[in-house]
Specification:
By secondary structure, this protein is of the alpha+beta class. The protein folds into two domains: 1-382, 3-Layer(aba) Sandwich (Beta-lactamase), CATH 3.40.710; 390-498, Quinohemoprotein amine dehydrogenase alpha subunit, domain 2 (Lipocalin, Beta Barrel). The chain has twelve helices and 26 strands. The protein has helices at 3-12, 33-48, 95-107, 138-142, 166-173, 188-202, 206-215, 254-257, 263-273, 287-294, 356-370, 452-456, and strands spanning 54-61, 64-75, 80-81, 88-89, 127-128, 131-132, 155-156, 224-225, 249-250, 259-261, 298-301, 305-307, 312-316, 319-324, 327-329, 332-339, 344-350, 394-402, 405-413, 419-423, 429-430, 432-437, 440-446, 461-469, 472-483, 486-498. Strands 1, 2, 3, 11, 12, 13, 14, 15, 16 and 17 form a ten-stranded antiparallel sheet that branches. The chain has a nine-stranded antiparallel sheet with strand order 21-20-19-18-26-25-24-23-22. A three-stranded antiparallel sheet has the order 4-10-8. Helix 2 packs antiparallel against helix 11. The chain is globular, with a radius of gyration of 22 Å. The two termini are 28 Å apart. 54% of the residues are buried.
Length: 500
């Protein structure tokens, strides 16, 4: 995984670490009035200072909502206020919804987690260099261990860009860039394909099935999928980091990030996953099936960091302390944290991807109000690049491909461990931050791939995430860019062979 993609993944997936879970035995069921007033005042000050636009919070304790409230504006121009029932874009917090929907079909016997994902897909399949990659299982797709790449783009209303179908997305980017099960690598492609599997196996459009099988039975009335166009006017407008309104936009993998939900509904969704068994919620899954969603599967980072089925998991001494899945993209900052041992959950929604330290501080203050020993959620360790060994020295030539477009490329690494990368017909560009990160060659360079999506977005930044396999190096090369108003990551599969 490239260092850039590590950063992108961490925006959406802040891994969770706590010391001894003493808070589990100390959680109370109410929030002190003084704490509530302090948080209210601080949020309102941030909004008044222009650093935030709209915020919604909810705190769950022992099967009830201890506090929920909205602040600021859902739509500045219209003067529409945020409430606890205002739907926000929740970005990657969508993933637990997708895997919950998936598990209802597993429970119905329509999907088997250990079967190939391709068994349930349509005409377009997940492929490797030999053809359909039938070694990629549904479970691996749900746990980011399938060897599939990252992907993100924005299709704004009022432009000529359009959201591709699942089949088109897979035809363009559904090529494995690592061996199935080889390592954890955050993949919107895999989660987006899972939504396609849910749609095909349910016989319904994904959003319709999500509504029928998950949202309605759990009483999530403020929650909807991107295809419910009639509900879009009720949601919080997304704003750039500097406070400018964004047009509504879609992405190429809606099953990974296009649920809209309120703090109130996320609190109810959290209580379902905490197994609080609310009387007005249907038991769409058994407790054992919920546990299966939460069980650690992919090793992310030691000690105790894992990814389950659509859930980030942290364990201490084999016991799950925290379940989490945040959401972060342009105009979105969602915090969604569950403490199973304390029967506590916290939600903070922000319609800007800005003032992140303040938002996480609000999250921690809310949790500490009913679980005083809570110490916060520090960022996980990120491996620094290690120097290249002599095995990497030399000239490597091969191809880079995506969207049916293939281009020749050359990687050169000298005896000092410095490198250049060149796409055919272009001058060699230096590779910065070149090194080995968790066993993968990582670095940043520049070049134009020539593929249609990358050309349309005028992408010239490239990040490398390549694996040495004898006399070949293969893996993912990402064309990307990020501005206050947009973010794009387009993955290319690369295979290069050592030259004599």
């Amino acid at each position: 995984m490239s260092r850039f993609l590590q950063g992108v993944a961490m925006m959406s997936l802040v891994l969770v670490s706590v010391p001894q879970p003493a808070w589990a035995a100390q959680a109370s069921a109410s929030i002190p009035a003084s704490v509530r007033t302090s948080i209210e005042n601080d949020i309102n000050k941030e909004i008044a200072a222009g650093r935030l636009t709209g915020v919604s919070v909810a705190l769950v304790s022992h099967g009830r909502i201890a506090w929920e409230q909205g602040f600021g504006r859902a739509d500045q121009q219209a003067g529409r206020k945020v409430t606890a029932h205002t739907p926000f874009s929740i970005a990657s917090t969508t993933k637990p919804f997708t895997t919950t929907a998936l598990m209802t079909l597993v429970a119905a016997g329509k999907i088997k987690l250990d079967h190939p994902g391709n068994e349930y897909l349509g005409k377009a399949k997940i492929v490797d260099e030999s053809g359909p990659a039938n070694g990629v299982t549904v479970m691996q797709m749900a746990t980011h261990s399938a060897g599939l790449p990252s992907l993100f783009a924005m299709y704004l209303d009022g432009t000529d860009d359009y959201q591709p179908s699942v089949d088109q997305m897979l035809e363009d980017y559904g090529h494995t860039v690592a061996l199935p099960g080889e390592h954890y690598a955050y993949s919107n492609v895999g989660m987006g394909a899972l939504a396609g599997i849910v749609a095909r196996q349910s016989g319904m459009e994904y959003g319709q099935y999500l509504q029928k099988a998950v949202l309605a039975p759990l009483g999530l009335h403020d929650t909807f999928f991107d295809t419910d166009v009639s509900r879009r006017s009720s949601m919080a407008v997304r704003y750039t980091d500097d406070g400018k309104p964004l047009p509504f936009y879609l992405t190429p993998t809606p099953g990974s990030g296009e649920v809209m939900s309120s703090a109130h509904d996320l609190a109810r969704f959290a209580m379902f996953h905490l197994k609080d068994h609310l009387p007005d919620q249907e038991a769409i899954l058994t407790d054992a099936q919920i546990d299966q969603l939460h069980a650690p599967h992919s090793d992310v980072a030691p000690p105790g960091f894992f990814y389950g089925m659509g859930w980030q998991v942290h364990q201490t001494d084999g016991k799950t302390d925290v379940l989490y899945h945040g959401g972060g993209q342009t105009g979105v900052d969602a915090e969604f944290v569950l403490l199973p041992g304390a029967d506590v959950a916290c939600i903070v929604l922000n319609n800007r991807h800005a003032d992140e330290d303040f938002i996480t501080g609000v999250r921690d203050r809310l949790i500490q109000a009913i679980a005083p020993s809570w110490k916060g959620i520090p960022k996980p360790p990120v491996s620094a690049p290690m120097p290249l060994t002599a095995d990497y020295q030399g000239t490597w030539q091969g191809t880079v491909q995506a969207q049916g477009h293939r281009v020749n490329a050359t990687l050169v690494i000298d005896k000092q461990g410095k490198g250049t990368f060149a796409i055919e017909g272009q001058s060699p560009a230096p590779i910065t931050d070149l090194g080995i990160v968790d066993g993968w060659l990582s670095g940043d360079t520049t070049g134009r791939t020539g593929a249609s999506d990358a050309e349309r977005a005028k992408l010239t930044k490239l990040s490398l995430g390549l694996k040495l396999r004898g006399d070949t190096i293969d893996g993912e090369i990402d064309a990307w860019d990020k501005t206050p108003a947009s973010m794009t990551i387009l993955p290319f599969w690369a295979k290069l062979t050592r030259q004599p």
